[in-house]
Amino acid sequence: MAAQINPSILSADFARLADEAKAVEGADWLHVDVMDNHFVPNLTLGVPVVESLARATDTPLDCHLMIEAPDRWAPQYVEAGAGSVTFHAEAAAAPVRLAREIRAKGARASMALKPATPIEPYEDLLPELDMLLIMTVEPGFGGQAFLDIMLPKIRRTRELIGKHGLELWLQVDGGVSASTIERCAEAGADVFVAGSAVYGASDPADAVRALRSQADAATAKASWFCDH
């Protein structure tokens, strides 16, 4: 699969979200960070904004729920128009049931892991998911520096995906930029969330193309891809 670039609107101008979505129309997905000021110490947006954004763009929405009680709230984001909904393993009471409910409502089901959360306890859950998100910063704020210590975790996750023969997307989020995306791709990621690296550029659409090109080139040389 070709690398996918998901610009994060957390780094966009919230007063001009429709315009900011149009500025990256060549992106694969639009990453929407939902924060509740409980699971993470920041407050962003919710269902009404997702509904409005879904009407304003043809780019599918990738909603990342950094919230408590995702079992209760996640299905509402599918109904609001999200094409992919990510809940956190640390917050979900019944992750398998929740993933199945998200899928049943017509969206892709994804689970996220904070930096300190290991992948191994969730190995048996992977077939229930369409995507696994590995946070490469502590969730809550954009613009943080990439955590290189997450690279071995990305590699281990890619190995588990291969072990079970899964068509599971592996997303990374946090500090992804021109200087880090190749390392992520080499380690096994194929979906990349980029905030300031896209919206901080003079031409966000060109930044998306450049990041995708870098990731594709690194993936082509990666051992995990060559063995696939």
What does this molecule look like?
Helix content is 36%, strand content 18%. It is built from nine helices and eight strands. The protein has helices spanning 17-22, 47-56, 70-80, 95-104, 151-163, 181-187, 196-199, 204-221, 223-226; strands at residues 4-7, 30-35, 61-66, 84-88, 108-113, 131-135, 169-173, 191-194. An eight-stranded parallel β-sheet has the order 1-8-7-6-5-4-3-2. Helix 6 (181-187) links the parallel strand 7 (169-173) and strand 8 (191-194). Helix 3 runs parallel beside helix 4 and helix 6 (181-187) packs parallel to helix 8. The chain is globular, with a radius of gyration of 16 Å.
Summary keywords:
228 residues; alpha/beta; 8-stranded parallel beta sheet; 9 helices
Short description:
The chain has 228 residues and is an alpha/beta fold.
What portion of residues belong to β-strands?
A: 15-25%
Poorly predicted ranges: none
The helix content is: 25-40%
| Separate helix tally | 9
Q: How many beta-strand runs?
A: 8
Seen as an oligomer or otherwise, the chain set is single chain
Report the C-alpha radius of gyration, rounded. Answer: 16 Å
Termini gap: 11 Å
Biggest sheet overview: 8 strands, parallel
Rounded average pLDDT: 97
Strand order of the largest sheet: 1-8-7-6-5-4-3-2
InterPro entries: Aldolase_TIM, Ribul_P_3_epim, Ribul_P_3_epim-like, RibuloseP-bd_barrel
EC number: 5.1.3.1
GO molecular function, one term: D-ribulose-phosphate 3-epimerase activity
Pfam families: Ribul_P_3_epim
